[in-house]
Amino acid sequence: MEVNAVQNVRIIFSKTDNARFISHLDLVRCFQRAFQRANIPIIFTEGFNPKPYMTFAMPLSLGIEGLNEILDIKVKNMGFDEIKIRLEKEMPEGIKILSCHEPEIKASEVGFSQYIIEIKQRAMSLEAFDKAVYELLTTPGLTVSKLGKQGKRKVVKEISLTENIQSLKNWNDNRETNVITMILTSNNSFGINPFLVLNLIEERLEISFDSAHIIRKKMLTLDGKDFYSLD
Q1: Which of 45, 57, 95, 165 fits a disulfide with 70 by CB distance 3.0 to 4.6 angstroms?
Q2: Per residue in 60-88, pLDDT tens?
């Protein structure tokens, strides 16, 4: 690498187990401290309040695990392998550095997220729940209430789920868990939180879950292709 060369770096990491309860703000602080402890020469913005160049693609909501999360940074005079080796030693339990490489696609081109949702409930049989969920989530014109903004005011808007569920499959493990996999719209201007879908299922089916475990498996580009071409 050239002296004083600035390198764009994409870090792919997982956030699982108890780390899913780390808020996004605390995750930012976690990485900032890790970069400092690992002596990684991250580039800072200029001005009165310099901040490290860090861009997370579609941050996770609290309580959701992520298997392939994206963080883009800029560093000076350090290779990808060295960044990974140094950084993975400084991460807390539940956050694992999977790879470091040069980004091929801008993070702003994320268009969708694929989720796996594991549900435990005792109100219905596994088969009846599968059937009811599929019928509900494929209902034409299905909407869900979402808190948004209109100017400076917060307002509740009705959002079409029919248009924003790109793919849906559900089944059960023949023991005690129902599993839903779905691809939801997830981009810089708009996204569907899977918790909204779960709340809608409980409300419409008039049941309560014993537990619901949400995992974001991966992100997709705006044209539906796998975002992780190098992984």
Answers
A1: 57
A2: 999 999 999 999 999 998 999 999 999 99
How many angstroms separate the Cα of 19 from the Cα of each of 15, 166, 179, 181?
Answer: 6, 28, 22, 22
H or E segment to which residue 204 belongs: helix 194-205
- HSE on the CB side for 202, CA within 13 Å? 15
Query: Count H helices, E strands: the chain?
Result: 4, 10
The secondary element (H helix, E strand) that includes residue 137 is helix 126-137
CA dihedral over 182, 16, 58, 103, signed as positive or negative: negative
Pick from 33, 26, 70: nearest CA to 52: 33
* pLDDT score of 96: 97
CA atoms of 200 and 130, how far apart (whole Å):
15
Q: Residue 224 is encoded by which pair of tokens?
A: 């539906």
* Residue type, position 80, single letter: F
Distance, first Cα to last Cα, the chain: 23
Structure tokens at 220: 């997709």
Is the CA virtual torsion 68, 58, 97, 23 positive or negative?
negative
pLDDT grade for 229, boundaries at 50, 70 and 90: low
Asked if the model's pLDDT at residue 37 lies above 60, the reply is yes
pLDDT attached to residue 208: 96
In whole angstroms, give the CA distance from residue 59 to residue 113.
Answer: 11
User: DSSP per residue over 22-63, as a string?
Assistant: S-HHHHHHHHHHHHHHTT--B-B--SSS--B-EEESSPPPTT
